[in-house]
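Q: How would the structure tokens look for this protein?
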Amino acid sequence: MINVVLYQPEIPGNTGNIMRTCVATNTKLHLIKPLGFSLDEKYIKRSGVNYIQYCDYTVYENWEDFLSKNEGTFYYLTRYGHKPHTSFDYSNKDENIYFVFGKESTGIPREILAPYIDNCMRMPMTDKVRALNVSNSVAIMVYEALRQQDYNDLLRDEPSDEGHKGANFIEELYNEE
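A: Here is the predicted structure in token form.
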């Protein structure tokens, strides 16, 4: 199972976007307090649109609380990592994989990172940007893991039910002419 861990997230819009990504990818979200916002704020709902009700998430009091309740392989995204995010193998569908992201202002504390330096990664980028937006980074990581797992059971075409145009929407244009 793929898991996203947000260590003390501060910006509700980022967390709302991440919740939407988690719903789209069947990814579990873990939120570690303190949060810089309330989960019932209108900003969370706006960013997650109307998908938040489907988000599988758990809130933890602190890092120790989170660790005591979760087991698996932990990967830490940090600008201080030495390996690119694509250098790891996430292909085992039976493994609990946790991608840990730090708070927007300061990242993940060094005390948490130091024992796991071999599982710290950095997305390659120019020297003009310190870091990507956390919601973008989450999407990149989740989809890299899903790519390696052949996207599990995610839909590859849009469904043909109410509210969706269906898998052959574009092709049908040629049949109408």
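The two ends are 45 Å apart (CA to CA).

The chain is about 30% helix and 15% strand.

Upvote if useful.
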